[in-house]
């Protein structure tokens, strides 16, 4: 069909006009075009657990599960969340006032920004960040302010994710009278860092000193490898009152497309977020809330969370072994399902032809492009998760997701080993 030049031009709104072409719209089609094994985007290419899928199937057959739910979320899910999370927060959570179900963690975060940001309010983000934060902030009139988490270990060797550190003085220097919110992400995407108690205490003390709301994005809170490791900032002294913790059914049960998430916090903070969310989406889809509720009800007795962690740990080891063999240093993730690989030793042929678009981006875009095209494995350039001024910090890294089947990881391993002649 011949393409037709648009005869009508309607100017887009400022709030979307500033969006740049995002990394996904470059690398997802590229992975398809060159039939690369896609370790780029963090979605599972294996099905959710049977008991959760079965619960969804049954929910679709019940009329009450096919109609509007309460804007707070279905009681069964809020009750299940309260039961599962109360021991983790060390307090009895009230499912009526302290929990809201959102359309994925992302929409929950959007609703918090909608509820708390005025034009020009500043939000402190640690880099690298989950890229959706930015548009969620700017669409609600806010201004992102950045502070990098820097690799402090020897980047030429494998590094523990805990060796990526935030400089607390630098973080404090970003706070102004307009600062309203600080966003924390632990376990962290893409570093795999699980913030220590001391780090959380320091961040919490800053938030208290400057009266900031803390959004603690803990979507990977069931995916960390050292059982002692993950701490919740909301449980630290005095911080419950200023923290909204964000969770994700997508990450917890391998159902990223179901778009179920939740916010947990004190009534005074949750109520405005609920008010905003009610006007954004009114309510979250009903049958899949029911299925996630049943997921939580049964997870404990089925030992689901433990076996899921063991499966991810196995996948992590499989992929790490490949980079070990290639001699490429990695950040060893303590949580989440990403590995940051140091690509400095990869020598992309100097006469390699890249599309012009990639010359406007940092070096990691070209390394990942070459890898997808010539090696057949797609990773994501992590400079996408930095502000312009700090992108250079990421240009020698690539992010690989290991939330994939054993077959996919084996196929990726086989291809990645072809990279040996290009490694100095
Ligand atoms: C750090 C972080 N926060 C939030 C999300 C969004 O989670 P959801 O899919 O539940 O919206 C993601 C998804 O990749 C993430 O990595």
Textual characterization of the structure:
The chain folds into 2 domains: 147 residues, Alpha-Beta Complex (Aspartate Aminotransferase, domain 1), CATH 3.90.1150; 253 residues, 3-Layer(aba) Sandwich (Aspartate Aminotransferase, domain 2), CATH 3.40.640. Helix 8 links the parallel strand 7 and strand 8. It has 15 helices and 14 strands. 47% of the residues are buried. The N and C termini lie far apart (49 Å). Helix 4 crosses helix 11, helix 5 packs parallel to helix 6 and helix 12 packs parallel to helix 15. The mean pLDDT is 96. The protein has an 8-stranded mixed sheet with strand order 2-10-9-8-7-3-4-6, with helices on both faces. A 4-stranded mixed sheet has the order 5-11-12-14. It has a two-stranded parallel sheet with strand order 1-13. It is an alpha/beta fold and 424 residues long. The chain is globular and about 60 Å long. It binds pyridoxal-5'-phosphate (PLP). Homodimer. Keywords: Aminotransferase, Pyridoxal phosphate, Transferase. One of its GO terms (cellular component) is mitochondrion.
